[in-house]
Amino acid sequence: MELLTLEHFSGCVNQSFTTRLDDVNLEFVLVEARPIGAAAPHPMRKPFSLLFRNTAAVVFPQKTYPMHHPQVGEVGIFLVPIAYEKAGFLYQAVFN
């Protein structure tokens, strides 16, 4: 598999990614995809961050989720719950 970059996700903002947890289908909406910080000398990729929202009433644990999107395909993304908003819990993934 090729190395994931910001360009893989930048066209997917406000679109749904799906996964399964304990035989339940979950939907996470990508609400932000942005570059972060300065890259180390000779990086394999430029660092970036993804922010997802899930509207479930419970917070899901930080872990790698097999996320599926029609354009990106299926990729493992390590999500960390970082905040709660009226619209749901926010989860961040950082790639560096």
From TrEMBL:
Lineage top rank: taxon: Bacteria
Residue ranges of every copy of the DUF6916 domain listed in the record: 4-95
The protein, known as: DUF6916 domain-containing protein
Species whose genome carries this gene: Hydrogenophaga pseudoflava
